[in-house]
Design a protein that fits this description.
Radius of gyration: 20 Å
Helix content: 25-40%
GO molecular function: S-(hydroxymethyl)glutathione dehydrogenase [NAD(P)+] activity; zinc ion binding
Number of domains: 2
Protein name: Mycothiol-dependent formaldehyde dehydrogenase
Cofactor: Zn(2+)
Bound molecules: adenosine-5-diphosphoribose, zinc ion
CATH topology of the largest domain: Quinone Oxidoreductase, Chain A, domain 1
CATH architecture of the largest domain: Alpha-Beta Complex
Distance between the termini: 22 Å
Structural class: alpha/beta
Number of strands: 18
GO biological process, one term: formaldehyde catabolic process
Number of helices: 11
CATH class of the largest domain: Alpha Beta
Strand content: 25-35%
Keywords: Metal-binding, NAD, Oxidoreductase, Zinc
Order of helices and strands: EEEHEEEHEEEEHHEHEHEHEHEHEHEHE
């Protein structure tokens, strides 16, 4: 039996998205049918709409989601109808070289649902990041579902499925921030603020937030920034060094994805410090770094892919911290909206008015 539901579709490059009927098949082997409860609006959805990721239109957008399992395929034992889950981009195989070496986030054989969701006329849809959760229901690989405590508000929980996990993981996993560290975060959108929250969780003593907008710096304080620097008015490298006794921060997290901010992060790092790149650059972006500085400063230049997260390890743990009041996931939810308001949410995101707009179903 197929399910007819509403979904947010991007039909062509840059065209406004629209709510249309989507046909979702019953789950086959290895698959799960999920009733979406909430799904955050992310830059990646906008990039899909604008043709910046692939040309496989039409897309079913949405990928930062939490929901309730409605049905599972015949061979699925790890999940059951009624489970409250957070969705992740790809189910890892557990057996490839990366998985076996303990780096499942670089899995070579990760999976999404095999069956296709379609428009009413049978046109196959490409689900954003293998999820497609701006819809009443979606079909995913069972391994894309991670069970978490159902006491969590879906709007807050779903955010762990993408941007907020990327930021928290950049601090906790990639940057390995530890108690007493000084941390600087460049770019205080949803991802940067999540990195700040992660640094606070890890016990960082000093958390320096850098942005070009005062409004963003005010929000950053709510997540744990102890100092703020407006880099449109002040040289951020000099400011970070001054705030760290002349040295630079132990961990600098770049959460913008631009050459100039990467360069600032490079120079704002203490000797033997760590630079974490979590902002996503475009293919054209390049930087030039003096090799002697790379050598002389030591430490590590790292990129953080999806916060180097392991959903089965990190999602339940972070939901528990949230339910204990130690991680304010709800603070990332700037507004809750309906499916019809996704296009308007893209505009708000573009204008920097929100951390996250979240579709609630
Ligand atoms: N210096 C400092 N901050 C900057 C600069 C700059 N030159 N340019 C932009 N910013 C700030 C913006 O003011 C904004 O607060 O960076 C922040 C970016 O936040 P968002 O646009 O909300 O993006 P976010 O969702 O946080 O993602 C940031 O991480 O995962 C990636 O694809 C994502 O590349 C994007 C980045
Ligand atoms: Zn995303
Ligand atoms: Zn694998």
């Amino acid at each position: 039996m197929a399910h007819e539901v509403r979904g947010v579709i991007a039909r062509g490059k840059g065209e406004p998205v629209s709510v249309e009927t989507v046909v979702v098949p019953d789950p086959g082997p290895g698959e799960a049918l999920v009733q979406v409860r909430a799904c955050g609006v992310c830059h990646t959805d906008l990039h899909y709409r604008d043709g910046g990721i692939t040309d496989d239109f039409p897309f079913l957008l949405g990928h930062e989601a939490a929901g309730v399992v409605e049905a599972v395929g015949p061979d699925v034992t790890a999940l059951a109808p009624g489970d409250f889950v957070i969705l992740n981009w790809r189910a890892v195989c557990g057996q490839c070289r990366s998985c076996l070496r303990g780096r499942p986030w670089y899995c070579f054989d990760s999976r999404n649902a095999v069956q296709k969701m379609t428009l009413a006329d049978g046109t196959e849809l490409t689900p954003a990041l293998g999820i497609g959760a701006f819809a009443d229901k979606t079909l995913v690989a069972a391994g894309q579902c991670t069970k978490v405590d159902p006491a969590a508000d879906p709007a807050a929980a779903g955010l762990l499925g993408c941007g907020v996990m990327a930021g928290i993981g950049a601090a906790l996993n990639t940057g390995a921030v530890t108690r007493g560290d000084s941390v600087a975060v460049i770019g205080c959108g949803g991802v940067g603020d999540a990195a700040i929250a992660g640094a606070r969780l890890a016990g960082a003593a000093k958390i320096i937030a850098v942005d070009i907008e005062d409004r963003k710096l005010e929000w950053a304080k709510d997540f744990g920034a102890t100092h703020t620097v407006n880099s449109a008015k002040t040289d951020p490298v000099a400011a970070i060094r001054e705030l760290t006794g002349g040295f630079g921060a132990d961990v600098v997290i770049e959460a913008v994805g631009r050459p100039e901010t990467y360069e600032q992060a490079f120079y704002a790092r203490d000797l033997a410090g760590t630079l974490v790149l979590v902002g996503v650059p475009t293919p054209q972006m390049k930087i030039e770094l003096p090799l002697l500085e790379v050598f002389g400063r030591g430490g590590a230049l790292k990129s953080s892919w999806y916060g180097d997260c392991l959903p089965s390890r990190d999602f339940p743990m972070l939901i528990d911290l949230y339910l204990q009041g130690r991680l304010d996931l709800a603070a990332f939810v700037s507004e809750t909206i309906a499916l019809e308001e996704v296009e308007a949410a893209f505009d708000k995101m573009h204008r920097g008015e929100v951390l996250r707009s979240v579709v609630v179903l």
